Amino acid sequence: MPDKLNDVVEELALANRILAHEGVLDAFGHVSVRHPRDPGRYLLPRSRSPALIEPDDILEFTLDSEPVRPPKVHLYAERVIHGCIYQARSDVMAVCHHHAPAIMPFVIAGKPVMPVFHLGAAIGEEAPFWDQHDEFGDTNLLVVKPEEGQSLARALGRHSVVLMNRHGATVVGNGLKGLVSRSIFMCQNAEYQLRAVTLGAWAPLHRGEIKLAGALSALPTVVTRTWEYWSARVPSSGAHASRPRSAPKVARSASRARGKAKRRR
Ligand code: MN
Questions:
Q1: What is the pTM for the complete model shown?
Q2: Helix (H, G, I), strand (E, B) or coil at 211
Q3: How far apart are CA 112 and CA 106, in angstroms?
Q4: What DSSP designation does 163 have?
Q5: Measured in angstroms, how far is the CA atom of residue 63 from the centroid of ligand 1?
Q6: Cα 31 to middle of ligand 1, angstroms
Q7: What are phi and psi of 110, to 5 degrees?
Q8: Which CATH superfamily groups domain 5-234?
Q9: Helix (H, G, I), strand (E, B), or coil: what is residue 65?
Q10: Which residue among 99, 112, 129, 191 is least enclosed by CB atoms within 10 Å?
Q11: d(Cα 38, Cα 31) in Å, to the nearest integer?
Q12: Structural contact between residues 185 and 122, judged by C-beta atoms closer than 8 angstroms
């Protein structure tokens, strides 16, 4: 993971657009990264759809999910998900919360997502469930109170994923690129699992296979290769192609390159 703040901010903006383009995030859902120099803080965009996130949208929060600088913009209501997990898990460097269509049937039916192919092993042996109603009764299902976030973090435990009944899922990683891989592989796995069930006989990977294949999917070569592939698939046009004049130099030249690419077509 890059340690320069600007590089991490750029990478987080790209992670948002990748996860949106690959169908993990839509108008909702969010992804964050722990601050590269201060483990007591994390970086998360302002409240905006992930496909549109630019480096300028990224804000800094304390682990209590309070903005470090007074915000002039709206914030994600569910940011305690991120803060409470960073507080509970010092090994976690990145968090993604989503309502991907691929996993919604499982969290509605209360059926486990289990690794059914080698890359699906990225989710680990078990993805526990958390039901907000068990502890908090009737709510609007958004995780907004610190005690709700802490309860979710307890359910996550040492796992890589927690499934949230009738809501979505939260995925963690020890780096941003690995988190992106895990989130996308998990959705692919859920799609394959559901389709395989309709064919009849199916079985998850063996425990030893999950361990070995999970380690494979976390290799830097795999993570770098998938990041490069998914980055190339992010649309080069759209709202983020026209940046304000105050944008950082790097991003402006990227935007000019996109403009040229557009004209060539
Ligand atoms: Mn949500």
A1: 0.88
A2: helix
A3: 6
A4: E
A5: 19
A6: 11
A7: 70, 30
A8: Class II aldolase/adducin N-terminal domain (3.40.225.10)
A9: coil
A10: 112
A11: 18
A12: yes
Q: CA–CA separation, 265 vs 175, rounded Å?
A: 36
Which tens digit of pLDDT belongs to each residue from 220-254?
999 999 999 999 999 875 544 444 434 444 444 44
- CA-to-CA distance for 80 and 228, rounded, in angstroms? 30
Distance from the alpha carbon of residue 212 to the mean position of ligand 1, in angstroms: 32
148 is catalytic: no
* Catalytic hit among 54, 78, 148, 191: 78
Taking the C-alpha atoms of residue 211 and residue 213, their distance in angstroms, rounded to an integer, is 6
Mean pLDDT value across the chain: 91
Residues 179/106, Cβ–Cβ less than 8 Å: no
Domain locations in the chain as residue ranges? 5-234
Rg (CA), the chain: 18
Instruction: Name the one residue in this structure whose structure tokens are 């709510």.
Output: 139
Distance 205 CA to ligand 1 centre (A): 29
* Mean pLDDT on 193-215: 96
